[in-house]
Specification:
about 200 residues, alpha/beta, Rossmann fold, seven-stranded mixed β-sheet, 7 helices, 7 strands, about 35% helix, about 30% strand, binds S-adenosylmethionine
Amino acid sequence: MGDVVVDLGSGAGNDAFIARHEAGESGKVIGIDFTPAMIEKARRNAELRGYNNVEFRQGDIEKMPLTSEVADVVVSNCVLNLVPNKDGVIKEIFRVLKPGGHFSISDIVLEGQLPKNLQGDAEMYSGCISGAIQKQVYLELIEQNKFVNITIQKEKKIIIPKDILSSYFSQEEILSFNESQSGIFSITVYAEKPESCCEPGCCN
Ligand SMILES: C[S@@+](CC[C@H](N)C(=O)[O-])C[C@H]1O[C@@H](n2cnc3c(N)ncnc32)[C@H](O)[C@@H]1O
């Protein structure tokens, strides 16, 4: 309660409205999105619901329109995979979080190699895949940016329909693909900004 929550790529505002319950009346939620139409829509939705502790700011999450160390919590759903410079966004998250603050981000990642065309078709099926990177690389980026207590809170394989897979695999291969660790995954990752910063370069 009383937290400042920042929602990256806030779209129509749905997640910001959920985060509002956690922030409470004494807290605040700030949604950031670079699409003017989404900002307008989110502001209209907030107004219709009579929410006065939710604010939407237009801007790029690679260069957030926020001062440093302002947020207790950063959330985001299905956005980082769309951003080419993921390292830049993670650095920005570190900058805007207060020491001891945390993020919880839901996103799409890949594991193993997928046939290139399959990735294209899967994109048409579920969206949010273009720009997705390997899970390991994603987690390493978070670690390299000095976050701690990195935890995967949820992980679910996205099941691609058989009619798409059958263009690339035999029936047997489809079975083993669905059971394997290779594929497209929806994950929620949690990590904390350290409370205090005692290593050289940690505060940069
Ligand atoms: C797939 S939608 C997700 C919206 C919302 N998070 C949800 O779950 O309903 C992605 C949103 O991210 C925004 N977006 C994508 N790249 C962005 C960036 N670099 N900076 C700010 N917003 C971005 C888009 O404008 C879009 O509203």
